[in-house]
């Protein structure tokens, strides 16, 4: 990866969005944020990104809807798209991976969990 690492955090909850953004900032990432799926898709149409953290439960488009659209439109090619959710029952994990997510990050997130995820995806420093 050359240059700065860029992430988009998509979550309808302000506190969750800020927390994820702060953890990524501390890990050296440049972070943009979106409050819903429509805003996220608009942003992804015009910007390069290496990582998308997508909340699953959002009003309007769900994280799964957004992920399917990202893959269908071939947006942010090469970027890792992560489902970021409190629900991660085994059958839900399968469903998320089937939508095109690269990984699942379980809320509540922590610094250690975030760094683990980045390393697993080959995006660690
Ligand atoms: Mg939500």
From TrEMBL:
Domain of life: Bacteria
Keywords: Phosphoprotein, Two-component regulatory system
Residues annotated as signal peptide: none
InterPro entries attached to this UniProt entry: CheY-like_superfamily, Sig_transdc_resp-reg_receiver
PTM sites of type 4-aspartylphosphate: 55
Response regulatory domain location: 6-122
Biological processes annotated in GO: phosphorelay signal transduction system
Key word Repeat present: no
One protein family per Pfam: Response_reg
Name recorded for this polypeptide: Response regulatory domain-containing protein
Lineage: Bacteria, Pseudomonadati, Pseudomonadota, Alphaproteobacteria, Rhodospirillales
